[in-house]
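Hi P.,

Sorry for the delay on this. The queue was packed all week, but I finally got your sequence through. Input first:
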Amino acid sequence: MMRRRPVVAYPVIFKYVDGEAGPFISVRSPNLPGLVVGASDARCALRDTEAGIARLLACPPYPAVENPNAWRLAPNEEVVLVSVDLDQWRHGSWVEL
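Then the structure:
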C-alpha cells in the first residue's frame, strides 16, 4: 500500500494594492492565523504563500478549511486556492517557481 503524501490546500485572499513604491500583493487567510505575505507580483506571492503555509503546518492536526464563499471581499481582492506538498517542503525538494 502506498503512503499518502500530505498535500494540503487552503484558500487565501490576494489583495492587490497600489502602494507608494509600486503595486504589490498582500496575502492572508482566515483559515491560517499568522499567515501574512507580501510580494511584488502574483508569482512571488504564490511561492511565498506556499512557504508560509508549509512553515505554519509543521505537524498535524491541520486547521479545518473554511468555505471561502462566506468571505466578504473588497473589489481589489480575490480568493486563490494554494496547495502545498508538505513532504517536499520538509525534505527541501520543492521546486522554485
